[in-house]
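Case study 2.
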Amino acid sequence: MFMRNAVLAVAAVLAALTSAPSRAAGPGLGVPVSEADLAPLAISVFPDGRGLPPGQATAIDGVDAYVTHCARCHGLRGQGKPGPALVGGIGSLGTKAPVKTVGSFWPHASTLFDYTRRTMPYDRPMSLTDKEVYGVTAYVLWLNAIIGKDFVLDAQSLPKVRMPNREGFVDASQGTPGR
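Prediction:
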């Protein structure tokens, strides 16, 4: 008797959950998101440069933006404290105490642009202009001695920047070291 009642109860619940009016109405949470609402969030930048916006800057152009928006967490020269260090650690990845920074660990310069644009500054993500992001990216790359202070970063040059650890990652789709 108990088993029959349990089966009937489960069948009733399943019927209620799969009925047409229930499916059409949904759970009644939130509101649909429009394409216009999503557009400002569709800002992915890929290693090959797809998604990079127009604009350009050099490390010199980026000093003011870095000092204003980044230095309080990352230090004037990217040394860290209270936030993570952005500079140093080159050659340390194979040691017992690896230091993972932009210069030592990150495989693509475009990742720095993408991450900075989406998440920084920590208390106001997505508040920097594209020019400021190009400038901050250039400044951090310069601090790591990856580019010169007058090197112009833009959508064409940024994906061509060779990061020290570019070959240190495996392309999951290929099973081979990254390109």
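Strands lie at 56-57, 153-154, 170-171, 176-177.
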